[in-house]
Write a structure and sequence with these properties.
437 residues, Rossmann fold, 2 domains, 15 helices, 46% helix
């Protein structure tokens, strides 16, 4: 789809700024006012009942999510439930107005106005929940309208390659990189992964092309392989770095580390799927066979956000021969399905020793990793994950790893995750041998 003229400024409107938050709050209050204000004794008696119903449904949903279903390893912020509750309240008010409608409410324009008010509250609530995670920073992102170049995978031709330190950019090299999408089969693991998205820098489209390092980058849970392209601002970060470094960046493979949006296989080989083998065997072998890259493991890194950061550290400690470099952005203190006892019972049949063999903290306490290096990143306001990240950074240093900790403004959101990648990309590119000190 082509967007031009006035469309681009509208698509690029921010959704997660303070001004946007105020706008959505005012809109939600106005919408609820339109739905709630009515001169009718019967309505005034029904109004508190509708409010209590919305509150009850919100509380029940919170209990189901937090205690029974538990699709996320950590609690959802209270703000999420507050705005979800307001959206339910708007729906309850709309339903109440419909069933208690009088002659005035039966007018087409009045009915459309009530539906519009409900939509305003629902959209405002969704926008405020989005602001908690900063996942869709603009209208463009929320609508799924990409602003980066794409290329079909089957159109990527093989050309002559040269070491990156002897390569020079040709005059006809594109100014930006491109994203391609392709399945990466679980040939050894038999893991059923979703299609991967792969960022290829401008230099990859040169002839000859340089042998580039690889960063396997993972999303959180819930999450998808598109998350780093949307909330993570991956293409903007990589293209900006490429513009300052003759078109060079690592190739970024956005691989699937969960198998579905809400799955939590904990980045291990288990009855939930052989994720560890998929990411440490299948993905590297496929990339080396299907893309022209630097095959030396010293030119390979794995990274991720939240669950993906935990997974990155797990593989860096379990398979340092494959991933001697890692990027742990807001990772968990330990792999978990909710709490340690539940995790050991459900995934390891109560075998604590089996859990210890995949837990980075246990591995760092008992093994040495003198050839590994990594970066830990966490938000200054991330009360849920910050202490765990700090403890793991100290443990990694004590285990002989060359690591550092970076703290950036923000909480557990894409504001931190995108900024963390941007800040660590120079270090990562130097560590992978792509650029000099």
């Amino acid at each position: 789809m082509s967007w031009s003229g006035i469309a681009d400024p509208v698509l690029d409107l921010p959704l997660t700024t303070s001004a946007a938050a105020i706008t959505f709050t005012v809109a939600a209050v106005a919408g609820l006012g339109v739905l709630a204000i009515r001169r009718s004794r019967r309505w005034l008696l029904l109004l508190p009942v509708l409010g209590l119903c919305a509150l009850a449904v919100t509380v029940i949903a919170a209990v189901v999510v937090e205690k029974l279903w538990r699709p996320f390893p950590d609690r959802l912020p209270t703000t999420v439930y507050v705005w979800a509750g307001l959206a339910l309240l708007a729906l309850a008010l709309l339903a109440g107005r419909w069933f208690c409608r009088d002659r005035k409410d039966r007018h087409v324009l009045a009915g459309c106005g009530l539906i519009a008010a409900w939509l305003v509250v629902t959209v405002a609530a969704a926008a405020q929940i989005n602001a908690v995670y900063d996942e869709y920073p603009t209208v463009r992102a929320a609508l799924g309208v990409s602003d980066y170049r794409t290329v079909p995978f089957d159109e990527l031709a093989r050309v002559e390659t040269v070491p990156s330190d002897t390569w020079s950019p040709p005059p006809d090299m594109p100014s930006t990189g491109a994203v391609t999408t392709t399945p990466i089969p679980g040939a050894t693991s038999e893991f059923e992964a979703r299609a991967a998205n792969i960022y290829l820098p401008p230099a990859y489209f040169a002839d000859p092309r340089p042998e580039l390092p690889v960063l396997v980058l993972l999303a959180g849970q819930p999450g998808s392989t598109e998350d780093w392209l949307v909330g993570g601002r991956l293409t903007q970060t990589m293209d900006a770095f490429a513009a300052e470094h003759s078109g060079l960046t690592p190739i970024v493979v956005l691989a699937d580390g969960t198998g579905s949006e809400f799955a939590n296989p904990m980045c291990v080989d288990s009855r939930l799927g052989n994720v560890a083998t998929y990411l440490s065997v299948d993905v590297p072998e496929w990339v080396r066979s299907n893309l022209q890259v630097d095959a030396d493991p010293r030119a390979w890194a794995i990274g991720g956000l939240s669950y993906g950061g935990t997974c990155a550290l797990q593989l860096a400690t379990l398979r340092p021969d494959v991933y001697p470099t890692f990027l742990d952005i807001s990772g968990q203190a330990e792999p978990t399905l909710g709490d340690r006892d539940q995790t050991i019972d459900e995934l390891f049949g109560g075998d604590e020793a089996a859990y210890a063999r995949i837990d980075p903290a246990d591995l760092l306490a008992h093994e040495r990793f003198p050839d590994s290096a990594g970066a830990f990143v966490v938000g200054l306001d991330d009360t849920e994950y910050r202490s765990g990240v700090e403890q793991l950074a100290a443990a990694a240093k004590a285990a002989g790893m060359d690591v550092h900790l970076t703290e950036v403004p923000g909480g557990h959101s894409f504001e931190v995750w995108s900024a963390g990648l941007e800040k660590e990309l120079p270090w990562l590119s130097q560590r992978l041998g792509l650029v000099g000190p």
